[in-house]
Amino acid sequence: MGYIPKFFRLVRRFGLRKAIYRSVVFLWTDKEDTVYGDYKRKHFVGITGDIVEIGVGQGANFAYYHNVGTITLVEPDVIDRPELDAKIKALQAKEVVVLEKQFEAVALAPASTDVVMATLVFCSVADSIRFLDKIHRALKTGGRFYFLEHIQAKTFLRRLLQYAVNPFWFFVSGSCQCVKATDRLFAADPRFKVISQEHFCIKDGFPWVRDHVIGVLEKKEVDDQGEGGVVYSKQACKIIYT
After folding, report:
1. Residues in CB range of 198: below 8 A, 6 or more apart
2. Is the terminal CB of the chain with fewer CB neighbours within 10 Å at N or C?
3. Residue limits of the Methyltransferase type domain (predicted)?
4. Quick one: pLDDT at residue 82?
């Protein structure tokens, strides 16, 4: 029952759309480890060195960081600052930098980090190809990109539901889209080596965001296309997202 008065406080402070989004985040944060914990413990292992995490949320991935250097946390919409601050202080890192801005606006030096972490982020990214390109540039050779995303459904009926719901979902969920085939985008990028990748379907949550992919990509030593990697055409983009 405590969520109801909290929702109305959010409406007064942020307006209806952001209040709905933040309420969904509050509710989901309580269940995140139950839903994703087993998959993360399988794939998010051996994370060391300097880390850039995009879309930190409430720090659900902090438990997987061990023997780390500098952690850069990119989060444009901090939901609960005191809770996040407490989790940050518990991190055993040399330095933690919090950037309250969109990842697209963050200036990262090329080949400057060992790890990039992004979970449930690409669904709300306007240009996924450029976003992944920026991640690739920031990683050192051999650096790893850890990801967890909900994706376009594998069955026709679930995809039909996703496309029907998507305009409403985009409005109420912070620009999230449930129809993006992000797994195909990752698999098609020749600049990365796939270390692990697993598709799974959860039983909790809304039926249009139950199909997921989790895994790890490693930046290859040599880019066949030279500095900056592959140049994707609009035609290739359409192939990825059908």
Report:
1. 39, 42, 43, 213, 214, 215
2. N
3. 52-147
4. 80
